[in-house]
Every structure is written in C-alpha cells, then in structure tokens.
C-alpha cells in the first residue's frame, strides 16, 4: 500500500499482492460483473415479461466480484509486465482492500468483545446471541438518554458500518453505464425502469384499443402494503436519496400503478412495496387478573400533560370511584363525558366498575388521563374488532402534547413584550 | 401515503419564471436566452415538480377519529388501508355522547371570551332554554292541530337550520386593479360561509340595549333566522344584492 502511494511502478506482482488481500476478506458477490454490461441490451430492447429490466442491476456491494474479474484480466496480461490500470480503479482497489481489512479487524474485535461479555455475564460463550448482548449492555451500561440512538450499543460491524458499492467502472476507468454520471445510478435506474414500463404499457393499450379490446378488470392486490420508505430505499439501493428524490419515485410509481395494464408489471411494483403491520398489533393489552371474589380486573397507568392516573377496571355494575368520590368529582359535564366515553362507546357502561386515582394537573387533564387509562384497561376485555373500533375513535392514541415552556425575555412561550423602536 | 399531486411545468412557465428544477432538485436561476435553448431538454428531464409537504401538528398527520361505530365499520369496509393508518387522539371536547355536536362546539368557541368556555357553554345552554320556552309558548298558543305539529321544539334543530339559512352564497373581496380597489363578488367555500353565518348571528345577538342578556337576544335571532326572517337574513340578502350590483367586476378575479 505504502509503496503504491509513493508512486512505484505498477506491476503484476504488486497487483497480485493487492488483489489477494482484497479478495480474501470479501464475501461472495451477488451478481457477476457482466451484469452491468447486460444493462444496455436490456434497456435498449426491453422485453415484455415479468422479469423487470433492473433485475440485472441489483445494487452491488463492495465485494470480491470486481476484483476477481480483474485477476482474470491481469492473468491475460501476464506477458506484459506493466499492466495499464486506471488511477480510479487503482484507488478503488486500495479502498476496497482498506475497507475489507477494516471490517475484518472490526469483526475480530466484535467476536472478542462478545466472548468477553459472555464471560462477564457468566453465560455460555458459544450460545451468547445478539439478544443476550443487547440485554447485558442494557444491564451494564444503563442509560436514560432520550434518544434511543444515543444509548450505548454493541452490534456486529456489518450493521454499524454502511455497506459500500462495488466499482461502477472497469480497469480502463470507463463506467459501465451512462447513469453513472447521474451520481445516483441505482436510483435513476429504478425511475428509468418505471417510466419505461409506463411507456410500454401505453403502447400496449394503444394496440388493444386499435383492436377494440377493453382492459380486463384486473388489479394488483396491494392492501396492507405501502411504498418502501425513504430509508429503506436508500438501504436497498445503497445510495443516499433525498426527500425530493423519494417523492419523485413515489409519483412515478403511482403513475405506473394507475395504468389499466399495471397488473402486468406486478412483480416490478411489488419489489418496491413493504408489508404494513396493523396498528392494533403494536398495542399490548394488560393481562386481566382475578381478585378475591373471583371478579377479573385490569390495571393501567396513563398520563396527560402533568397529570398521572392509575386506573383499575373491574367487572361490576357501572360504579365510579374517582379519588374517593363518584363521577361528581368533576364539576364540568365535559369531563364526566370524557370519563364515560370509552365504556359508553362500546355499550359497556353497566359492565364495569372504575376505580381511579388521578394526581397533579387540572380537571381536564385528569379526565383525559382517566379516559386513556380506562381505554387501555378495556383492551384486555374486548374482541379484536372492538379494539379496532376503539382505535378508530381515537381512544388508544396518547395525546402527547404538553405546554410549551416559557422563554426568558418573552412574556410566554412565543409572545414577546410590546416594543417600539423609539 | 399521501403526497401532494405534481404540477406539470410547461415550457412557457419555465421561460417566464427562468426557474429550472434540476434533476437533483435544486432550483437554478438561468437567463432567459439560455432558457430558450434548454427548454426542450428541460421539459424532458423534469416534467414533474413536487411540493414539499407542510409542517403540521403531529395529530393532523393522522387520520381524524370517528365516534360513530357504524360509520367506522363502513369506513373500514370501504378503505381497508384505514387499519394500517394511525388515528389521532380524541380531543377533550369530542366524544360519542348524544350531546356532542361539532357545530355547536364551534359556535360556543366563537362566543367565548378569554378562554372562559364554561361561561360560554352556560350561555348557550340558557339560550337553548330560552328557545325552548319561546317555542313551547308558541306551541300552546296555537289551537290548530296541523299548525301545532309544524312548531319546531328542538333547539338544536333550530340552531342548525338557522346557521344553514344564514349561509351566504357569494361574498365581496377587495381587489386592486389600476390603482382602484373594486369590491369583487366571489363564491364562498362552505366552511367560510358557515363561519360567516355564525359570526353574523353572534354580532346580531350582541347588538342590544343594556339590561338584556346575550342569551335572550341570541335565542330570538336564532328563531328568526330559523324562520328565514330577521336581521341576519336581511344582511345576507343585502350582501347578495351588492354582489349582484358588482357583477360587472367579477372578471377581475382572474383578469388584469
């Protein structure tokens, strides 16, 4: 490396050394280098099949594929002692080697740390999994930092350090495809493919119209899926795409999706969709318990602004106990309505007793905190369909708004004292 | 996923504005001459311009809550995606109660001073009581059975109908053309018309001598508006007359 940096003549033996080092640590490549060359032919005369044109253009990582190709070429040029290598390629190889060395070192460190941690925790070294690591880090280095990303972590280096792209150009320094010059070749390839498909489907539609045919009533079933998020797209394409780029991607894909013959490119469209999880899946209903008299009850804690409410919902006859009083604890009708809201919504007003303790905050906050507590308790006793109804009525969403703090020199959070320039 | 629809930028628009949306999303300011040359190229590379979404309160990004179980079921059947969308929290004044009325809540907020909502609510409650009294008197005063049936006794229905009757169809907006400001008639959106109707009702209710309470005057105004009579209805007709008189200026809305 150092020799190369100094500008020593580039010889086959040097290359061999470099390439050996670079290939040894690189993982198996996803596609061959020739995949790139296939692009021009595919995009030039696209076929109407379910195989999308970008199959050959799956994003590539920094791997041994390019390097191994280069080895082959180097072998062919054995007769010539001085191989002509482009400066860009040379720096790429150096980078690849440095990256692989770095990753190898990190991997070794991680493995040592993992074993050390297992020993510290008195666990079996061989079966100490990532989950165990996370648990022990949480135990040994407890952190209350607000941002979860700021808390200490120990992950395999593959997850921590971003993957890098494979070389986009050959030994002579010429890129394999013109999109290289866009700066985001993989992203623009997706856009190009989508636009290409739209055009082809338009042609198809014209042809069908000429023949007097109507498009079939087929539609792609996309329920429960959404376009991949910006971050996911970035990860998938190995390119950092901006908000603007992402919006353009969505617009282009939506246009393709609206086409009456879009079902023909279902595979292409579904590649960029992610499966959504129903919102009610994330809710963790409290487990109902039994009291001495055999009545089941559930407990929960809820907040609103600075108010805290501890609520017990017990099978009963519709009695309320709020801080030792009944519903008349609240002088305002609105607050009483709020407390009764979840049970009234599901017609269960006379099926449960409510025992609530609400502290701090005003009456409105108390009412809302109790409402949230009752709703959460109620999730333990309802069916999944009723749960969805409650969610749609906004009973299971926590209102996280709080009072904005006053700023110094201001009269409030934002308002300023009256002031006139002389 | 909801994103703003794209507006297609024409070559003419680009030339006039000298604004080009480059492929990377950065706007470049170019001279007109350069624009002329590049127009065709630009049209090809960037037909779609996207608008950045507005920053809104966090709960406005979620679906609004619905409080009627049958309506929710219909919504879930019509749009299965609703199951995967976040729903905003029910606000403090909202509930599935039979007494919850969004329009009445809006009206109460409009008559409120200094955040004294309890007082405003009390005023509305007493106003409704007055309406009920007046209508009951009317009911007992009529002897004819069919006329008796026609007397509306529900104050909430009277309130809704009164607001509906007071909604203006057109409004005047000042538009400056050639140094002269013209009052140009424009069509009003439903929400704005509703607001205007309520504002007029409240202003009419506040126009009274001392010793008479707001709750009494507003009751009378609501009943009058319910019967398509009274000051507010007259105000609406006056506005419509003014709009009719100014209809020669209507083209100023879109022309210079």
Automatic annotation (TrEMBL), chain A:
One of its GO terms (cellular component) is mitochondrial small ribosomal subunit. Residues 37-54 have a biased composition (Low complexity). GO terms for molecular function: RNA binding; structural constituent of ribosome. One of its GO terms (biological process) is translation. The keyword Ribosomal protein applies. Gene3D superfamilies: 3.30.230.10. InterPro entries: Ribosomal_Su5_D2-typ_SF, Ribosomal_uS9, Ribsml_uS5_D2-typ_fold_subgr. Pfam families: Ribosomal_S9. Keywords: Ribonucleoprotein, Ribosomal protein. Residues 28-61 are annotated as: Disordered. Belongs to the universal ribosomal protein uS9 family. This is Ribosomal protein S9. It comes from Ramazzottius varieornatus (Water bear). The gene is RvY_05826-1.
Automatic annotation (TrEMBL), chain B:
Transmembrane segments: none annotated. GO terms for biological process: translation. Keywords: Ribonucleoprotein, Ribosomal protein. The keyword Translocase does not apply. It comes from the Eukaryota. Residues 95-247 form the Small ribosomal subunit protein uS7 domain. Belongs to the universal ribosomal protein uS7 family. This is Small ribosomal subunit protein uS7 domain-containing protein. It comes from Ramazzottius varieornatus (Water bear).
């Amino acid at each position: 490396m150092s020799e190369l940096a100094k500008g020593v003549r580039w010889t086959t033996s040097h290359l061999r050394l470099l390439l050996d080092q670079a290939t040894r640590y690189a993982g198996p490549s996803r596609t061959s280098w020739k995949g790139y060359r296939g692009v021009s032919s595919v995009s030039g005369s696209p076929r109407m099949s379910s195989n999308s044109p970008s199959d050959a253009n799956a994003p590539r990582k920094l791997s041994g594929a390019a390097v191994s190709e280069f080895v082959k070429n180097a072998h062919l040029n054995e007769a010539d002692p001085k191989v002509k290598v482009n400066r860009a390629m040379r720096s790429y190889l150096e980078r690849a080697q440095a990256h692989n060395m770095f990753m190898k070192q990190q991997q070794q460190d991680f493995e040592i740390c993992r074993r050390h941690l297992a020993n510290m925790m008195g666990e079996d070294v061989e079966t100490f999994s990532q989950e165990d690591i996370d648990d022990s880090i949480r135990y040994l280095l407890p952190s209350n930092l607000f941002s979860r990303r700021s808390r200490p972590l120990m992950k395999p280096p593959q997850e921590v350090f971003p993957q890098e792209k494979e070389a986009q150009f050959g030994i002579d320094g010429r890129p394999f495809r013109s999109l290289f010059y866009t700066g985001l070749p993989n992203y623009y390839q997706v856009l190009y493919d989508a636009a290409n498909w739209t055009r082809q489907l338009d042609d198809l539609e014209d042809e069908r119209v000429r023949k007097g045919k109507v498009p079939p009533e087929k539609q792609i079933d996309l329920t429960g899926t959404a376009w991949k998020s910006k971050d996911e797209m970035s990860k998938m394409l190995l390119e950092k795409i901006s908000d603007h780029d992402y919006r353009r991607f969505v617009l282009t894909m939506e246009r393709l999706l609206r086409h009456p013959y879009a079902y023909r490119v279902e595979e292409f469209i579904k590649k960029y969709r992610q499966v959504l999880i129903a919102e009610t899946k994330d809710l963790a209903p409290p487990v109902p318990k039994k009291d001495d008299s055999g009545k089941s009850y559930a407990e929960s804690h809820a907040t609103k602004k600075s108010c805290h409410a501890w609520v017990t919902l017990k099978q009963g006859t519709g009695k309320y106990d709020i801080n030792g009083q009944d519903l008349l604890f609240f002088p305002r009708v609105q607050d009483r309505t709020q407390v009764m809201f979840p049970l009234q919504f599901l017609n269960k007003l006379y099926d449960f007793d409510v025992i609530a303790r609400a502290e701090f905050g005003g009456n409105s906050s108390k009412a809302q905190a109790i409402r949230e507590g009752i709703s959460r308790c109620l999730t333990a006793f309802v069916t999944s369909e009723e749960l969805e109804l409650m969610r749609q009525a906004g009973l299971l969403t926590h209102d996280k708004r709080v009072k904005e703090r006053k700023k110094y020199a201001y009269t409030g959070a934002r308002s300023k004292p009256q002031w006139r320039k002389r | 996923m909801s994103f703003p629809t794209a507006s297609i930028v024409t070559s003419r628009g680009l030339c006039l504005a000298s604004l080009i949306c480059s492929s990377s999303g950065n706007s470049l300011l170019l001279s007109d001459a350069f624009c002329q040359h590049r127009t065709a190229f630009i049209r090809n590379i960037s037909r779609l311009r996207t608008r950045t979404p507005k920053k809104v309160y966090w709960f406005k990004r979620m679906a609004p809550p619905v409080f009627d179980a049958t309506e929710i079921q219909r919504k879930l059947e019509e749009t299965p995606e609703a199951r995967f969308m976040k729903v905003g929290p029910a606000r403090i004044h909202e509930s599935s109660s039979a007494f919850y009325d969004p329009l009445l809540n809006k009206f109460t907020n409009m008559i409120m001073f200094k955040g004294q909502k309890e007082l405003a609510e009390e005023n509305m409650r007493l106003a409704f009581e007055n309406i009920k009294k007046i209508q009951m008197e009317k009911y007992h005063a009529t002897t004819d059975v069919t006329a008796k049936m026609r007397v509306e006794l529900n104050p909430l229905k009277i309130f809704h109908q009164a607001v509906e009757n007071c909604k203006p169809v057109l409004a005047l907006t000042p538009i400056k053309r050639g140094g002269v400001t013209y009052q140009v008639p424009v069509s009003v959106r439903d929400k704005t018309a509703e607001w205007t109707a309520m504002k007029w009702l409240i202003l009419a209710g506040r126009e009274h001598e001392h010793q008479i309470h707001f709750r009494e005057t507003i009751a009378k105004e609501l009943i009058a508006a319910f019967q398509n009579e009274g000051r507010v209805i007259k105000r609406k007709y006056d506005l419509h007359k003014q709009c009719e008189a100014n209809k020669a200026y209507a083209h100023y809305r879109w022309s210079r």
